[in-house]
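Note to self: the last two entries modelled the partners one at a time, which told us nothing about the interface. This time every component goes in together.
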Amino acid sequence: QSALTQPPSASGSPGQSVTISCTGTSSDVGAHNFVSWYQLHPGKAPKLMIYEVDKRPSGVPDRFSGSKSDNTASLTVSRLQAEDEADYYCTSHAASNNFYVLFGGGTKLTVL
Amino acid sequence: QVLLQESGPRLVKASQTLSLTCTVFRDSISGSVYYWSWIRQHPGKGLEWIGYIYYSGSTYYNPSLQSRVTISVDTSKNQFSLRLSSVTAADTAVYYCARARVIAARPDYFDNWGPGTLVTVSS
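The predicted structure of the combined assembly is written out below.
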């Protein structure tokens, strides 16, 4: 099973919006709504930002939103802030095996 | 808020076995609504899922690592552990433990992670 495809980098200025894509196949991302997104800051525990495509955990700012179209999921960060600069990873599961986790390659988000 | 903390040797010699433990605070590892997982990140690379364990002891591993991985649980200590045998330099990584929420009888998203621990394999 191949990893999910993310752009290696994305950037935007404070106040702008940025969208990060996560492309899989009809056998994983396109097969169900088990897509989640994580924020990684160096030296800190990774943080869940979005789960089940578009659900936001308590405490995550509403500037973060998720969506999906066919085999591609997306994370949008609106009204960018300096603290949003981090690495972002998407995950999904293989439809043929609920216990097999696929990660995207990660996207480095830079706030200019 | 649950806390997870990884512990174990930071330096392992090649060909030996890497052993890490994740201690869970403020939650019971025996709950039926979570799976417990190990995930790693090679230096400068992306995340790689290693495996899951349920409190009952049921395990699920990444096929690419299955021959070398053992994940176990100790409910009396509220801990779960990772053993990775025959390590090489390619196993040098930050190792994270994480909690996965059960949805529809299967693990879904990782809702809490430990801070991670860097394990270096030396020759």
